[in-house]
Amino acid sequence: MGLGTVNQSRSTYLSIAGGFIWNRKADESDPNYATQTYERKDGTKGLRKGAQYADVTGKITGVVFRTHPEYGESINVKIDDGTPESYIISISTNNRYSQDMMKALLLGDLQKTFFIKPYDFIGNDKKRAMGISFRQNGEKIALKIDDAPSKESDWFKSATKKEIRRFFEDLNDWYVEKVQMEVVPNLDDSPAVKEVAEVVEENVPGGEVKEAKVETKAEEVKEEVAETPKEEVKLPTPLKMKRALKDYIDENYEGEELPTLSKKDLIEWYTLAQNLEELPFKKEESKVETQDVDVDELDSQLDSLMGK
């Protein structure tokens, strides 16, 4: 008898920069190889290179958020096009591309194919237009979330830089949390439900996990947390914890900013703040402001962002 070949699926990691989709690992032998110059924030010139694509089409089958201690948070979106090969687009959550991606995840039909095309150009009004365009069934998805946090235009005229930065940080956290709650559990290749239960078991302070029922669907997961003698252990959402921490830091740590925290550290810091205890700022974190991650400089950071 003959032996058949096992066709194993594999994933190609991609990034978005300069209005294109890039496979940074591709070399000059790739037919789609290209280079593109760009200007860094400090005014110097850089060169990105790799296989360059205008768009990608496929069904979104998984979403994962990852946090790197140095480069911050990224969203990894898995796309299947019906072949053994799949694609994972990794985008820092601190840039315009990621917010468009999260809006599309919330507004699009996850059972249908997405056409995904980034753009980056200077318009007739001399302003830079940058983002991602999405289509389903030939129709463009209008990327507008009606219940997203917003401010009147007059507010921005009088707000300080710190207040404006704080607003956009909270807005970004709102999108991340909404995608985690409404999108991630409904995708086959998102993190397993069991992993979610394990995180709760490790991180809930002041109590023990009594039981974690893991069903086949994420929305059916039930976590029963043991009660303390006087009150039930109940944590707010990550977004509310971050807001409470930012308020606590503003009141007690002049000049400090909330650093990027893992889920475990976020709960630890929140618990300390609730008990009016000192927060464990590190020296290298004490004067670091939250800034946009320059997508043009993710060349060397991509593997780390994807948790490889």
Overview of this protein structure:
- This protein has 308 residues and is of the alpha+beta class.
- The protein has a domain at 10-145: OB fold (Dihydrolipoamide Acetyltransferase, E2P), CATH 2.40.50.
- The protein is 27% helix and 28% strand.
- The protein contains seven helices and twelve strands.
- It has helices spanning 96-107, 153-158, 161-182, 193-203, 238-252, 263-274, 302-305, and strands spanning 10-17, 20-23, 33-39, 45-53, 56-68, 72-80, 85-92, 114-122, 128-136, 139-140, 209-213, 222-225.
- The chain has a ten-stranded mixed beta sheet with strand order 3-4-2-1-7-6-5-8-9-10. Strands 11-12 form a two-stranded antiparallel ribbon.
- Strand 5 and strand 6 (72-80) form a beta hairpin.
- Helix 1 (96-107) packs parallel to helix 3 and helix 5 packs across helix 6 (263-274).
- The longest helix has 22 residues, at 161-182.
- 18% of the residues are buried.
Task: Briefly say what this structure is.
By secondary structure, this protein is α+β, with helices and mostly antiparallel strands.
Instruction: Provide the low-confidence segments as ranges.
Output: 1-6, 192-233, 285-293
Share of β-strand residues = 25-35%
Strand element count: 12
Q: Strand count, sense and closure of the main sheet?
A: 10 strands, mixed
Tell me, rounded to a whole number, the average pLDDT: 77
What's the tally of helices? 7
N-end to C-end Cα span: 40 Å
